[in-house]
Amino acid sequence: MTPLPAATSVRFAMSQPAESNQPPRIRVRPPGPVSSRLARRLTGVESRNVTFIAEDFPIFWEKARGSNVWDADGNRYVDLTAGFGVAVAGHRNRRIVSAIRRQIARLPHGMGDVHPPTAKVRLLETIAGLSPLQDTRTVLTSSGAEAVEVALKTAILHTGRPGTIAFSGAYHGLTFGALAVTDRALFRAPFEQQLSPHVLRAPYPHPYRPPEALVGLSADLGDAALEAVHGLLDTAAGAKVGAIIIEPIQGRGGDVVPPPGFLAGLCSLCRERDLVLIADEIYTGLGRTGSLFAFQAESVTPDIVCVGKALSGSLPISACLGTAEVMQAWPASDGEAVHTSTFLGNPTACAAAVASLKEIQRRDLAGRARREGRRWLVGLAELGERHEAVGDVRGRGLMAGLDLVGDRETRQPDADLAGRVIRKALRRGWILLPGGPAGNVISLSPPLTISRELLDASVEMLDEILGEVATDRHSA
Questions:
Q1: 342 CB contacts (<8 Å, ≥6 apart)?
Q2: pLDDT tens readout for residues 38-83
Q3: What is the secondary structure of 153-179 as a DSSP string?
Q4: Which pLDDT tens digit goes with each residue over 318-376?
């Protein structure tokens, strides 16, 4: 075991950063001996499909605060993932933690659909006050996938039509209803026989990787995608479609921002065809992209919105929001709810969610993501121009993706390169995630509270690592 220097090669300003925005400090080369022992223990008790274990991966988290995570070996990292996009107000945000402590000391669990906790009412009223939907009605759920399930159920109740149009590259979760609208063979293939046959797949207008299905349609990429949706609706199967579900910006699909005007056009199409428009904002919602919801950037108003992750910034809770008109399709409860669960409206999670939503508002985290994101994305774009391995830099707010390629001309995805960048970054004290169907996109979604100093340092870190891997490639 060889200790590494306390400082990394990334340079920081002279001012001392706050506790929650400290630079990386690597004492033991990750993964250290404690993480390695934990990995061996984990393989003896967990299904082998859940956690990827390798000699140099993963680290085991021990604690977190703000933009920082500490592993079981005492190394301090900067988390550029916000824990899968959850910690928008920072890890272990003190106001959220205080709300959890107060609630758990009084009532940690309740009977959400029989004798509801008061915290459930407070959360639903808070959501209604923030929602851009008209006369919002909400179903609380425990995971993003479950919120999508509720959205799909709502659509069929409202329209009476079982069909749904989903998009290429989409990720909506892995429960059966959500998996049916998710698009990736890795997830779908083992269960294909059990998935709904009523899902039609439309090409998502990916500006850097335009789907072949759009070739020969309108010259404008967004218009071509809308034309393809119209084409699907004009088929026999399309006549049974009652809803369209879309991520305003694809997250796990590779941080893909569609062309301007596409979402607005899709919304108009839904109005013309009497379809329910479902916006999956589980990843993008609640400030991540520079507005409370990503669809607001185009002044679009869907019928249903799914939120999660940042909703509590900590505990498992999500929600399906809908207009009163659409949600009225659910029958009134006669003592038995058609869709419910044991932990619906869990008071501790509800208290965390109320605190999280208040923090997002109080600190104007959406505005901060917009302002800091503009500057950060410029830095990332300049980095991309310097490195042949970066085919595209895209994003909005504090959500960005670096599309790594083996060749800029062919745009061939290079997942191996992305893996090397992620491992090198981890050894320097930076936590990154791969994204995109090929796993070649460096996906960045830091806490919205991250300091400008760390954002600048993240660009410098990526610049250095991409330079190193390029040298490695040429010398191989």
A1: none
A2: 999 999 999 999 999 999 999 999 999 999 999 999 999 999 999 9
A3: HHHHHHH---EEEEETT----SSHHHH
A4: 999 999 999 999 999 999 999 999 999 999 999 999 999 999 999 999 999 999 999 99
Q: How many Cβ atoms sit within 10 Å of the Cβ of residue 460?
A: 15
Nearest of 148, 229, 157, 239 to residue 198 by alpha carbon: 239
- Tell me the backbone φ, ψ of residue 261, rounded to 5 degrees: 95, -20
Nearest to residue 356, comparing CAs of 288, 294, 299, 302?
Answer: 288
The set of residues, in sequence order, having a beta carbon less than 8 Å from that of 438 and lying 6+ positions away, is: 413, 415
* ∠ CA 280-285-291, rounded to 5°: 130
Q: Are 207 and 193 in contact (CB under 8 A)?
A: no
Strand 76-79 to 136-141 pairing: unpaired
Side-chain half-sphere CA neighbours of 14 within 13 A:
0
Q: Residue 267 is which amino acid?
A: C
- On the 0-12 / 13-18 / 19+ scale of CB atoms within 10 A, 174 is middle
> Which residues pair with residue 71 across a beta bridge?
61
Between CA 53 and CA 56 the distance in angstroms is 8
What's the CA gap between 59 and 192, in Å, rounded?
Answer: 33
E strand spans, 148-260: 163-167, 199-202, 241-246
Q: Measure the CA dihedral 306/310/315/317, to 10°.
A: -10
In angstroms, the CA 365 to CA 90 distance is: 11
Q: Containing H/E element for 403? A: strand 399-407
Residue 445 · residue 85 · CB < 8 Å:
yes
β-strand partners of 434: 442
The residue behind tokens 């021990």 is: 62
Closest CA to 406 of 423, 384, 389, 387: 389
User: How many beta carbons lie within 10 A of that of residue 2, not counting itself?
Assistant: 5
pTM over 0.90: yes
Biggest distance spanned by C-alpha atoms of the chain: 71
